[in-house]
Amino acid sequence: MAVIGALRGHKKAILCLIYVSDLLFSGSADGTVRVWQRGGDGSFNCLSVLEGHQKPVKSLVAVSEGVSNGVVSVCSGSLDGELKAWKLSFSNLNTPSPNSNLLKWS
């Protein structure tokens, strides 16, 4: 086996992962959820950081509302006792850039 990529950016351990609509979501002990997309070179690009939990994020669930309309809903649960619902709208994710404005959260 060989390592084919790594997620770098969380300040503490990654506790949960979910993959939906070509996006990888990671929940961490740092209280954040990060949204990743794999680049052509195999590396992962962080597209967005979701903040709002006060304690570690322990669970993630995502529902694609239709890849054709570019909407994904994600719920994150943490040890602060809160469940947060996020709605992600994205445009063309074929050529992501860490500084691009491809994602919109509501």
- What low-confidence regions span 5 or more consecutive residues with pLDDT below 50? 94-106
Number-wise, the strands total: 8
- Roughly how much helix do the residues carry, as a percent range? under 10%
Q: Could you tell me the radius of gyration in angstroms?
A: 13 Å
Q: How far apart are the termini?
A: 39 Å
Number of helices: 0
Give the overall form. Answer: globular
Secondary-structure element string:
EEEEEEEE
Q: What amount of the residues lies in strands?
A: over 45%
Strand order of the largest sheet: 1-2-3-4
Q: Give a quick account of the main beta sheet: strands, pairing sense, barrel closure.
A: 4 strands, antiparallel
How does the helix and strand content classify structurally? Answer: mainly beta
Please, what is the average pLDDT?
A: 80
Instruction: Domain count, please report it.
Output: 1
Give an account of the 3D structure:
The chain is an all-beta fold and 106 residues long. The strands form 2 sheets. A 4-stranded antiparallel sheet has the order 1-2-3-4, with no helix packed on it. A 4-stranded antiparallel sheet has the order 5-6-7-8, with no helix packed on it. The chain has one domain (14-89). The chain contains no helices and 8 strands. Helix content is 0%, strand content 50%. The chain has strands at residues 14-20, 23-28, 33-38, 44-50, 57-64, 71-78, 83-90, 103-105. The chain starts with 13 loop residues before the first strand and ends with a strand. The radius of gyration is 13 Å and the shape is globular. Keywords: Signal, WD repeat. It comes from Momordica charantia. WD repeats lie at residues 7-37. InterPro entries: JINGUBANG-like, WD40/YVTN_repeat-like_dom_sf, WD40_repeat_dom_sf, WD40_rpt. Residues 1-29 form the signal peptide.
